[in-house]
Amino acid sequence: MFKMTERLAKIFDTVVERNPGESEFHQAVKEVLESLSPVLPKHPELGEKKIIERICEPERQIIFRVPWQDDRGEVQIHRGFRVEFNSALGPYKGGLRFHPSVKLGTVKFLGFEQVFKNALTGMPIGGGKGGSDFDPKDRSDDEIMRFCQSFMTELYRHIGEYTDVPAGDIGVGTREIGYLFGQYKRITNRYESGALTGKGIGWGGALVRTEATGYGVTFFLRELLKERGESLEGKRCIVSGSGNVAIHAIEKLHELGAKVVACSDSNGVVHDASGIDLELLKEIKLDERARIEQYAKRKRSAHYEKDGSIWKIPCQLALPCATQNELDADGVRALLKSGCMAIAEGSNMPTTPDGVRLLLESKVAYGPSKAANAGGVATSALEMQQNASRQAWTFAQTEAHLDDIMTRIHEDVRDTAEEFGAPGNYVVGANIAGLLHVAKAMVALGLV
């Protein structure tokens, strides 16, 4: 990373002052600004048009009340968010997260990251994010439906296939998207398939969308290794998390010859030296929605550690696929000590700033999230493309498109890092490449 210039430091100070208490948003902005010092001399228009200042300020921030009634007849009140961050490249695009930790700063950090990530895909989509502090865990299907209907009753007026296209994220899968889309269709009286992505197959969804983020991060990791003359074949891996992203990363890693020996959830870690049994994991996490402890109870070769650290398990490859700031400096030290040669991020901003610094100093192959986990939103854009043309592609067609997009993202990030004097630093490459794609459009569109 580079030292911030005085001008960039002033921009950061202004962001902190105008957005008090939003530490995750501050962290995301700082990481980008620390990459940009070599850009300004080559692109003076960024300063003249105040592009960086404008890109740090969302175009629109929407906060609303979500009242709903639980199965006991009690009224519950939650807060809904949609931050429409930047539409220079296309309609706002980004997921909805339902989790108790969601607050405005969370959504703004995710939306800011989404702007750069979406730009890297090369698809015509802007960046946004949304969600609620509602927790779908342990709620009945009827309660989730009532919540989603109330949430969409407000959100519908802000979205549309040419305006803002939400998708899923933590706590929002095909079930939730179905309830949200049903209410959108009912209110608008339009079957506007492209207004939401992550829909079910048979009613506007795209094959590979469920698998896309996990598959995409694995394709990116493959390219990272290829750059160093290595491959996935026979490598011992750990994957944090056991949700949608983690499960499908494990699936693709196994297909490409790697061996995943550990995964986790918020309660603890499972270590299975014989290799994670993917079908058993899917049964427990996707079908039964149970805790990962059940895996060790059913698989004799597995060991479960409550509140354990997955980063202490020896590996050659690590994929953080759970949540933000899950991998700290101590976790990075443990990975480096065990001989880990590459890390690719499947979740959004999973590594703390101290952890990132250690990774960059260590010279291990490191794929940051805004590049490595772009497969989900890329396939969402492919779903929009199919909706617009009334087509349904095969699984193989869509996966081939995804593979091509992730390969091109890797090339863009690698080449940009080299161009701006930081060869091998994919954090710098991703931040600068994403910024320049958005900045060129912002300059062309004028002061809007």
Briefly summarize what is shown.
The chain has 448 residues and is of the alpha/beta class.
Describe the structure.
- The structure is a single chain.
- This protein is an alpha/beta fold.
- Among the domains are: 60-190, 3-Layer(aba) Sandwich (Rossmann fold), CATH 3.40.50; 212-367, Rossmann fold.
- Helix content is 47%, strand content 15%.
- A 7-stranded mixed beta sheet has the order 9-8-7-6-10-11-12. The chain has a 5-stranded mixed beta sheet with strand order 1-2-4-3-5.
- A hairpin with a 2-residue loop joins strand 7 (259-265) and strand 8 (268-272).
- Helix 7 (141-155) packs across helix 8.
- The radius of gyration is 21 Å and the shape is globular.
List keywords for this structure.
seven-stranded mixed β-sheet; 448 residues; Rossmann fold; alpha/beta; globular; single chain; five-stranded mixed β-sheet
Structural class: alpha/beta
Spatial order of the strands forming the largest sheet: 9-8-7-6-10-11-12
Order of helices and strands: HHHHHEEEHEHEHHEHEEHHEEHEHEHHHH
CATH topology of the domain at 212-367: Rossmann fold
Strand content range: 15-25%
Regions with little confidence, pLDDT below 50 for 5+ residues: none
The oligomerization state is single chain
| Rg calculated over all Cα atoms | 21 Å
What do the pLDDT scores average to?
Answer: 96
Q: Termini, distance in Å?
A: 31 Å
Give the biggest beta sheet: 7 strands, mixed
Return the CATH architecture of the domain at 212-367.
Answer: 3-Layer(aba) Sandwich
Query: Which of globular, elongated, flat, extended, rod-shaped describes the shape?
Result: globular
The CATH class of the domain at 212-367 is Alpha Beta
